[in-house]
Design goal:
Largest sheet: 8 strands, antiparallel
Helix content: 25-40%
Strand content: 25-35%
CATH architecture of the largest domain: 3-Layer(aba) Sandwich
CATH superfamily of the largest domain: CRAL-TRIO lipid binding domain
Distance between the termini: 24 Å
Structural class: alpha+beta
Radius of gyration: 32 Å
Number of domains: 4
Number of strands: 26
Shape: globular
CATH topology of the largest domain: Phosphatidylinositol Transfer Protein Sec14p
CATH class of the largest domain: Alpha Beta
Number of helices: 19
Organism: Crocodylus porosus (Saltwater crocodile)
GO molecular function, one term: RIG-I binding
Domain CRAL-TRIO: 318-494
Domain PRELI/MSF1: 3-175
Subcellular location: Cytoplasm; Golgi apparatus
Length: 718
C-alpha cells in the first residue's frame, strides 16, 4: 500500500531571500538532523544572470533501524538524491528528492516548495508532499514501512525549528536582510569577478540545461513536475498556524489526512465542501483512515442535502408541544469551554411526545439541537481562543421509570441515536448521567449496542447523589453554573417537562401523514436506473430560449446522462406496467418515456453529448433551449466497455461491475425551468431571481463543460 503525506502551508514571517540563506546553511550536513550524515554536489547549473540556480546533491543518511535489519539488507547507510531549483526572479525554490538505495524495492518521492506568501511579499510559504511505496524488502515490508514513517514524521516536526535555528544564527552573525535579486546587481557581481575576485570552479551542467533552445525559464519549469505543491491563497489551503488555532494539535500524519481529504473534496465538490472541523470529526471517528472517513462523510453529505439539514435552524420552527414539554436546553459551558446541554430525561413524557408528535418530529428536533451545538462550538472557539469541536451533555435521570421503556418510545430513541451517530460523529465530548435509578441498567442494555465504542468511553454515570462527591460534577462544571435542580445556585431555564395532555395525542394515521410530510419536504426526487430500463422525465417548453437546470447525485452505480428533444409528446407511462414504461421499486421510481418504436434522428434528437457520471458524483448544469417542444432528461445505466484489443473484459471493469448489485443504479435529482430573462450571471452559477434552486447553488463555484447552448458543471458527492 502506498503511504502518502501532504503538509499544511507553513508560513515564515521572513522574506524569501532570508529564508533561502538560512536553508543553505543546512548543507553539506545538519547537526540538528542526526541521520543526515553528509551530502556531495553531483550537478550544478547557474544561469548567466544569476537568476536560476539548479543544484543536485547526493545525501548520505544513517537510518535508525535495527542492526539485524541493516545486516540483512547489507547496507549501513541509505543514499538519496535531492535536486533544488532556485529561481530568484520568481522567488521560488522547488525541491525534488528520491531514494537511490533499494530503488528497485522501495520507491520514495518527496516534493517541497518555498514561495512568497500570496498576501504578504515579505513572508515565505513552505509546503511538502511525499509518497512511500514498498514493493518488497526481504519479508520485512511492514517493519520498514513503520521505520520510514517514524523517521519521516520526526524530521517533519523539526523542519520549522531548523529554519528558525539558522535564522537566529544569521542574526547573531549580523545578517538580518538579504537583498532581492535584480539584473543590475548580477551584472555588478560579474564585472567584479572579472577584475580579480576568485572565480567559482568549473561545474557540471545538468542535462536539462543543454537542450537546444532551452532558456532560463524553461530550465526551472523542467525541474518541477505538475504534481508539485504550489503555494495557494489562505482560502484554498490550510495554514499550519490556522490548524493549531482552530482545529487543535494534530500529528503530521493527521494533518496530512485532513489536507488530503479536504483536497479530494475541493477537486470533486468544486467549492461545496464542509467546514474543516466537520471533516476532522469524520476522520477522528474512523481513526484517520481516509477511505473509511470519506465513505461515511459522503453518505452524510448526501443525507444533509436531501433533507436540507443545513437550513433547519432557519426554516423549521419546533411545534409548541416540544417547546413546552421537551425538558432539554443549552446552559452555559463546562470547564473546558464546551457548550453544555442539559436534558432532564426523567422528567420528560417520552410516550406523550411520541403520541402527540410522532417519531420524525422528535428526530428533526434533535437534529436542530445538534446543528445549534455545531454553531455554539464555533462561537466558543472564538471566545476562548482554542479549538472547541464538541459539547458536553448532562442527563438527569431523576424520575426515570418503566413508563420511559415504552416500546415505541425506545424505538424512536434508537432511531435518533442511529441518525446522530452517522451524521454527527465526535461531537459529544462528554456525557454526564446523574441520579441513575435502578431501572437505568435495563435502558442501558437496550441502547448501548447502538452507540459507538469511542462514544461510550465518554460516558460518566453517577447513581443517587454520587455526583456531589469527589470526581463528580464539580470536576467538569464550575460551581457557579450548576443548575438549581441539582443543588446549584444557577437558575436553569430548561423546561421542566411534565405529562403531555392526552388531548394533544393524535391517531396513528395522522402521525404517519405528518411524518411523511416532514421528510418529503425536499425538492429532490429519487429514482432507480436498471440495465435496459433508464429513468426519464419530461419537460415541456413553450418559449424558446428557456433554461432547463438540473442538479443530481449518483448515489449508486455509474450512469450516462442524456438530453433529447421531440416535437411530439411521448405517451405517458402506465403505472400498472412493469415492462416498457414503468418500474416501481423500493429504492425509487423508474419511468421510461421514449417508445421503443421511436428512432433517434426521426422522432427525437439528441441536444447534448452524453455525459458519463460515476458513482459518488454530483452534477449541476443547464441547457438553453433552441426550440419549443418536449425535452426528455434521461439517466441510463452505464455498461463497462470491454478492452479494445480483446474480447475479454478488463479486471478493473469486472471489479467495478461487481460493485453495482443487480445492475441497479440510484440517482437523486432536481430540475427546474427558468425563463431566459430570469437567468442571471454565469450559467455555471445556476442563479435565478425567481428560482428556489438558487439557494442551493449560490455558494457554488464549479468548473464547467460548455457547449453552444449549455453548460454543465460536476463534482463528486457521494
Amino acid at each position: 500500500m502506498v503511504q502518502k503525506y501532504q503538509s499544511p502551508v507553513r508560513v515564515y514571517k521572513h522574506p524569501f531571500e532570508l529564508i533561502m540563506a538560512a536553508y543553505e546553511k543546512r548543507f553539506p550536513t545538519c547537526p540538528l538532523i542526526p541521520m543526515f550524515v553528509a551530502s556531495d554536489t553531483v550537478n550544478e547549473f547557474k544561469s548567466e544572470d544569476g537568476a536560476v540556480h539548479v543544484i543536485e546533491r547526493r545525501c548520505k543518511l544513517d537510518i535508525d533501524a535495527p542492526r539485524l535489519l541493516k545486516k540483512i539488507a547489507g547496507v549501513d547507510y541509505v543514499y538519496f538524491v535531492q535536486k533544488n531549483s532556485l529561481n530568484r526572479r520568481d522567488r521560488t525554490l522547488h525541491i525534488e528528492a528520491y531514494n537511490e538505495t533499494f530503488s528497485n524495492r522501495v520507491i520514495i518521492n518527496e516534493h517541497c516548495c518555498y514561495t512568497v506568501h500570496p498576501d504578504n511579499e515579505d513572508w515565505t510559504c513552505f509546503e511538502q508532499s511525499a509518497s512511500l511505496d514498498i514493493k518488497s524488502f526481504f519479508g520485512f515490508e511492514s517493519t520498514v514501512e513503520k521505520i520510514a514513517m517514524k523517521q519521516y514524521t520526526s524530521n517533519i516536526k523539526k523542519g520549522k525549528e531548523i529554519i528558525e535555528y539558522y535564522l537566529k544564527q544569521l542574526e547573531e552573525e549580523g545578517v538580518t536582510f538579504v537583498p532581492r535579486w535584480t539584473p543590475d546587481v548580477c551584472k555588478l557581481e560579474k564585472s567584479t569577478s572579472l577584475t580579480g575576485r576568485p572565480v567559482s570552479p568549473a561545474i557540471n551542467i545538468p542535462d536539462t540545461a543543454t537542450k537546444e533552445g532551452l532558456n532560463n525559464k524553461e530550465i526551472l519549469n523542467t525541474s518541477s513536475s505538475p504534481s508539485e505543491p504550489t503555494a495557494g491563497t489562505p482560502d484554498d489551503k490550510l495554514d499550519a498556524d490556522y490548524i493549531k488555532r482552530y482545529l487543535g494539535d494534530l500529528t503530521p500524519m493527521q494533518e496530512s489526512c485532513l489536507i488530503r481529504l479536504r483536497q479530494w473534496l475541493q477537486e470533486t465538490h468544486k467549492g461545496k465542501i464542509p467546514k474543516d472541523e466537520h471533516i476532522l470529526r469524520f476522520l477522528r471517528a474512523r481513526d484517520f483512515n481516509i477511505d473509511k472517513a470519506r465513505e461515511i462523510l459522503c453518505q452524510s453529505l448526501t443525507w444533509r442535502k436531501q433533507h436540507q439539514v443545513d437550513y433547519i435552524l432557519d426554516t423549521w420552527n419546533p411545534p409548541q408541544v416540544l417547546q413546552d414539554f421537551y425538558a432539554g436546553g443549552w446552559h452555559h459551558h463546562d470547564k473546558d469551554g464546551r457548550p453544555l446541554y442539559v436534558l432532564r430525561l426523567g422528567q420528560m413524557d417520552t410516550k406523550g411526545l411520541v403520541r402527540a408528535l410522532g417519531e420524525e418530529a422528535l428526530l428533526r428536533y434533535v437534529l436542530s439541537i445538534n446543528e445549534e451545538g455545531l454553531r455554539r462550538c464555533e462561537e466558543n472557539t472564538k471566545v476562548f481562543g482554542r479549538p472547541i469541536s464538541s459539547w458536553t451533555c448532562l442527563v438527569d435521570l431523576e424520575g426515570l421509570n418503566m413508563r420511559h421503556l415504552w416500546r415505541p418510545g425506545v424505538k424512536a430513541l434508537l432511531r435518533i441515536i442511529e441518525v446522530v451517530e452517522a451524521n454527527y460523529p465526535e461531537t459529544l465530548g462528554r456525557l454526564l448521567i446523574l441520579r441513575a435509578p435502578r431501572v437505568f441498567p435495563v435502558l442501558w442494555t437496550l441502547v448501548s449496542p447502538f452507540i459507538d465504542d469511542n462514544t461510550r468511553k465518554k460516558f460518566l454515570i453517577y447513581a443517587g447523589n454520587d455526583y456531589q462527591g469527589p470526581g463528580g460534577l464539580l470536576d467538569y462544571i464550575d460551581k457557579e453554573i450548576i443548575p438549581d435542580f441539582l443543588g446549584g445556585e444557577c437558575m436553569c431555564e430548561v423546561p421542566e417537562g411534565g405529562l403531555v395532555p392526552k388531548s394533544l395525542y393524535r391517531t396513528a394515521e395522522e402521525l404517519e401523514s405528518e411524518d411523511l410530510k416532514l421528510w418529503t419536504e425536499t425538492i429532490y426526487q429519487s429514482a432507480s436506473v436498471f440495465k435496459g430500463a433508464p429513468h426519464e422525465i419530461l419537460i415541456q417548453i413553450v418559449d424558446a430560449s428557456s433554461v432547463i437546470t438540473w442538479d443530481f447525485d449518483v448515489c449508486k452505480g455509474d450512469i450516462v446522462f442524456n438530453i433529447y428533444h421531440s416535437k411530439r409528446a411521448p405517451q405517458p407511462p402506465k403505472k400498472e406496467s412493469l415492462g416498457a414504461h414503468s418500474i416501481t421499486s423500493p429504492g425509487g421510481n423508474n419511468v421510461q418515456l421514449i417508445d421503443k418504436v421511436w428512432q433517434l434522428g426521426r422522432d427525437y434528437s439528441m441536444v447534448e453529448s452524453p455525459l458519463t457520471c460515476r458513482e459518488g458524483e454530483s452534477v449541476q448544469g443547464s441547457h438553453v433551449t433552441r426550440w419549443p417542444g418536449f425535452y426528455i432528461l434521461q439517466w441510463k445505466f452505464h455498461s463497462m466497455p470491454a478492452c479494445a484489443t480483446t474480447s475479454l473484459p478488463r479486471v478493473d471493469d469486472v471489479l467495478a461491475s461487481l460493485q453495482v448489485s443487480s445492475h441497479k443504479c440510484k440517482v437523486m435529482y432536481y430540475t427546474e425551468v427558468i425563463g431566459s430573462e430570469d437567468f442571471r450571471g454565469s450559467m455555471t452559477s445556476l442563479e435565478s431571481s425567481h428560482s428556489g434552486f438558487s439557494q442551493l447553488s449560490a455558494a457554488t463555484t464549479s468548473s464547467s463543460q460548455s457547449h453552444s447552448s449549455s453548460m454543465i458543471s460536476r463534482w463528486r458527492f457521494c
